[in-house]
Amino acid sequence: MIVKTDTKEKFSVITPVEPEISANMTEDLKEMLLLYLKKDIPHLVLKMNEVATLSQEAGEMIALVQQQFYENNASFVICEINESMEKQLEEQDLLEIMNVTPTESEAWDIVQMEEIERELLGDFDEEE
Known about the structure:
Layout: E1 3-7, E2 12-16, E3 20-21, H1 26-35, E4 44-47, E5 53-54, H2 56-71, E6 76-79, H3 83-91, E7 100-101, H4 104-127
Parallel strand pairs: 2-4, 3-5, 4-6, 6-7
Antiparallel strand pairs: 1-2
Helix pairs in contact: 1-2
């Protein structure tokens, strides 16, 4: 699977450069995404602007991987999905459990807000 990677100060942006993410590509994508949990800065933005279609298996896998990130106190935001993919994810009841933003800039904002939230909650936990 071909992707573009852009590493920022607080997160990485992964952009699949494939018109379709099919069922047989899901395991490769999953392994690649989960590697980011082991990095010093594990926060991830998955930019989907170049993907036209997504298999049901790939959509389910992305939702599960996103959940794993949050369970590990790491952000995972999906951005720039097209209307047909958004409709498909909604029909699969996945859209409402995913953290999706219309633009990459808004995804950055979410990652930064979640980082602040983790810091504040960490301070709160230490006071108890």
